[in-house]
Amino acid sequence: MLIGQMMSSAFSPDSMGLGGEMDSGAQTMLDFGREHLSRVIAEGGGLGLGKTIEAGLAKDQKKAATALLKR
Questions:
Q1: Chain centroid to CA 56: how far?
Q2: Has this prediction a pTM greater than 0.85?
Q3: Which stretches of 1-71 are assigned E, i.e. beta strand?
Q4: Number of domain units in the chain
């Protein structure tokens, strides 16, 4: 979902199409492309945020366990 939102905000409708105009067919294809790219990125592991967050939490958990053992 985050990737889809990032993709949507990356493209401004004002900068698309000839003369800045976009018809409904072009908008539909652009939406389809964004959705597909977002899905492919997510299936490939996303932006790596999950692994980074998991590593940080594991590190914090290890520190907490070590602190408890020292008591």
A1: 19
A2: no
A3: none
A4: 1
Residue 6 CB contacts under 8 Å (≥ 6 apart), including other chains: none
What is the separation, in whole angstroms, between the first and last Cα of the chain? 43
Give the integer Cα–Cα distance in Å for 61 and 48. 20
Task: Give CA–CA dist 62/66, Å, rounded.
Answer: 6
Q: Which domain holds residue 6?
A: 2-70
70 neighbors 40 (Cβ within 8 angstroms): no
Place of tokens 């964004």: 34
Q: What is the pLDDT of residues 21-64, one digit of tens each?
A: 667 787 788 888 888 888 888 888 777 778 888 889 998 888 88
- Cα angle 48, 49, 52 (rounded to 5 degrees) comes to 90
pLDDT, tens digit, for every residue of 4-25? 677 667 665 555 555 666 677 8
